[in-house]
Amino acid sequence: MSAAVNLALRATMKNALHPVPMCPVVHFEMPYRDRERAADFYRAAFGWQTQALGPDMGHYLLLTTSTTDAKPGAPAGAIDGGMFPLSPDMPADMQLPSVVIGVPELAAAMARVREAGGQVLGEPMPIPGVGDYVAFVDTEGNRLSMLQPTMQGEPPCAS
């Protein structure tokens, strides 16, 4: 029996005896170089609310991305995600954790990113059954992505 199969079997047996609760992702963090510039970018490009905290809170910048549940029927505040295999054929900077922002119209969001000082990386890529996707770099050098879903349901945010 391989080590990976043995490890998976032990984890399955442990979970059967002591179920592990499903713990949602409820927060993300990104670094900034210039707090006001970062706040301006996310307000202009995505309509987010920002709140600059003081030195007692480490000069943190709070970002409010939604005031309602973005996915009706999903647990409040939950962020779903996925993982992809590392590939030696892909650039290392394309294989880092990423924040994906849902947008109702990708072309309009790409224009807002550019107008707010960000850089769109390439052209939108269709993901079958999911939507159109494109990566971008914000004013602080963080690589993120945008997705215009094609899945049925409510749009990710109001236009």
Key attributes of the depicted protein:
alpha+beta; 3 helices; 159 residues; four-stranded mixed beta sheet
Write the layout of secondary structure elements.
Layout: H1 3-17, H2 35-46, E1 49-52, E2 61-64, E3 100-102, H3 106-115, E4 119-127, E5 131-137, E6 143-149
- Could you say which structural class the secondary elements and strand pairing correspond to? alpha+beta
Placed side by side, the strands forming the largest sheet appear as: 3-6-5-4
Q: Please, how many helices?
A: 3
Task: Note poorly predicted spans.
Answer: none
Order of helices and strands: HHEEEHEEE
N- to C-terminal distance: 54 Å
Backbone CA Rg = 19 Å
Let me know the largest β-sheet: 4 strands, mixed
Strand content: 15-25%
Averaged pLDDT, please? 84
Fraction of residues in helices?
A: 10-25%
Total E-strand runs:
6
Task: Report the principal-axis shape.
Answer: globular
In short:
This protein has 159 residues and is an alpha+beta fold. It has 3 helices and 6 strands; from the N terminus they run ααβββαβββ.
What would you note in describing this structure?
The protein has 159 residues and is an alpha+beta fold. Helices cover 23% and strands 21% of the residues. The chain has helices spanning 3-17, 35-46, 106-115; strands at 49-52, 61-64, 100-102, 119-127, 131-137, 143-149. The strands form 2 sheets. Strands 3-6-5-4 form a 4-stranded mixed beta sheet, covered by helices on one side. A two-stranded antiparallel sheet has the order 1-2. α2 runs antiparallel to α3 (106-115). The mean pLDDT is 84.
